[in-house]
Structures are given as structure tokens and as C-alpha cells.
Write a structure and sequence with these properties.
Blueprint lengths: L1 H11 L1 H6 L5 H12 L3 H13 L5 H13 L3 H14 L4 H13 L11 H10 L4 H24 L3 H34 L1 E5 L3 E5 L8 E6 L3 E8 L2 E5 L5 E5 L3 E3 L1
Antiparallel strand pairs: 1-4, 1-7, 2-3, 4-5, 5-6
Helix pairs in contact: 1-9, 3-4, 4-5, 5-6, 6-7, 9-10
């Protein structure tokens, strides 16, 4: 079933994929050549200018991340690998390179153990992006309508049963995918993450410099943004520790 869904997505998203190729393709190719010639800074500038013009793709962010990694800029490399992974959650190459970058950062923070439901939810929802889940939901709803019309107009009893059964199955898939898409959307709205860009920063107990230090984190650490207070944000890390950090020390994903 997963491969059938991906097959349907290929046609539905074909036009969107074509748009990402855009007039900036020549600049993208130039940046690729600069990357091959080890001119990583120049390649980053060119790829970043494409992103600044509103062109977003997993390939673009992946290449920017690779160039930052070559320059040993761990924070920015993790940041762009994460952005690439949002657009292509099942890309094994992105996941592999992200793991390499994460292993290069200073902090080795042990996350809190996840419940069975949390692991199952991450596994299922992470198969597709929110946009892809939304497309699947639309496909299921259209399929349900077509099959129900077939059931309504079918004259033979066998065909009626077949149309009715498949319509009910597509209806169940519609409910399931709609639920997953809704939950995924809520996650996108409520769970905002960022990557630490400063080499080292103190996590404070209050949004001021003279407050107690709760924890020290380093470049490349992924954090969850909880609330904002002027130039400070309250954040959480995967081991459950919370504290305040200057907004200038991280970059939102």
C-alpha cells in the first residue's frame, strides 16, 4: 500500500517538483561546480541566494548542509540537514549525513525514553510530510466518491458489493489519513524547533544574564522553543531540561 501511495503522489506532486527546478537551475549548477572545486563558501553563497529567492527543495538544503559540513560548521550543517529532512523525511542519504554531523557536535545528550505510542506515532507520521498526508487524504476522498457513485449506479449485485466494500475501505483510509494530517498540522503549528548556532551558550533559569546557569549547550544541539520573552526564549532539550537562551544563539527551523 505504501508504494501505491507513493506512486499516486508522484503524479500529484509532479508539477510542484517541476517548479523547484526554476530559472535558478544555472546558478545551482554553478554552485555544484564550486563545491566540486572545494570552493565551499562560494557554493554556500550561491545556493543560499536561491533559497532567499523563495526556491526550496530537499536537494538545495542538502547541498548547503554538505558545504557547511566541509567547512566544519557543525551547527549550520545540522540546521540545513534538518530542513532537508522535513521536505524528504525518508531520504536515507540525508539521514546518514545528519547522523555524521550530529556525531561531530560536542553535546551528547541522552533523550528521555519514549512511550510505545510515541514511537509508533513518530514512525507512522514520519513516513510522509504534512503536505503529502494532505494529498493522500484528498486522493482517498476522491476515490471514495468515485466508488460510491459506482455502487449507486451498478446494476449487478456482485458489482454493487465490490463497489460498496472498496468505497468503505477508501472511506476508512480517508478518516485515518485526515486524522494523521490534522495531527501533523497541529505538530507543525505547536512544536517549533531550532538549532543552536553559537559555539557555546548558557541555559539560564530566567531571561537575564545574571540568573543561574541551568545547563551549558553547544553548537548543533536541537532545541524546542516553548515561549518567548523579548530577546530571550524558554527552550527545552531532549533530556527534559528547560531554561532560557538569547534568541541570537539559535536559528529556527
Amino acid at each position: 500500500m505504501k508504494y501505491i501511495l507513493k506512486f499516486c503522489l508522484f503524479f500529484v506532486l509532479l508539477s510542484a517538483h517541476g517548479q523547484s527546478q526554476d530559472p535558478s537551475q544555472a546558478l545551482f549548477s554553478q554552485a555544484t561546480e564550486n563545491y566540486k572545486n572545494e570552493q565551499y563558501k562560494k557554493a554556500i553563497d550561491q545556493w543560499s541566494s536561491i533559497a532567499a529567492n523563495g526556491q526550496h527543495s530537499a536537494a538545495l538544503y542538502y547541498n548547503i548542509a554538505n558545504a557547511h559540513y566541509k567547512l566544519n560548521q557543525i551547527g549550520p550543517s545540522i540546521y540545513y540537514y534538518e530542513k532537508a529532512l522535513v521536505l524528504a523525511p525518508n531520504d536515507t542519504q540525508i539521514k546518514t549525513n545528519l547522523t555524521f554531523a550530529q556525531n561531530a557536535k560536542i553535546d551528547a545528550i541522552t533523550p528521555l525514553p519514549k512511550t510505545f505510542f510515541s514511537r509508533w506515532y513518530t514512525l507512522v507520521v514520519g513516513q510522509f510530510t504534512f503536505d503529502e498526508w494532505a494529498v493522500i487524504t484528498v486522493v482517498c476522498s476522491c476515490l471514495f466518491c468515485v466508488l460510491f457513485i459506482g455502487y449507486y449506479f451498478a446494476s449487478m449485485e456482485k458489482k454493487k458489493r465490490l463497489f460498496f466494500t472498496t468505497a468503505m475501505l477508501s472511506g476508512c483510509f480517508f478518516i485515518l489519513t485526515f486524522t494523521i494530517a490534522s495531527v501533523s498540522y497541529n505538530d507543525l503549528q505547536n512544536n517549533v524547533f531550532a538549532i543552536v548556532f553559537s559555539q557555546e551558550t548558557d541555559l539560564k533559569s530566567a531571561p537575564k544574564n545574571n540568573s543561574d546557569t541551568v545547563f551549558v549547550i553547544h553548537q548543533g544541539t536541537k532545541i524546542k522553543l516553548l515561549e518567548s520573552d523579548g530577546l530571550w526564549s524558554r527552550i527545552a532539550i531532549v533530556n527534559g531540561i528547560e531554561g532560557w537562551m538569547p534568541n541570537s544563539d539559535f536559528k529556527k527551523l
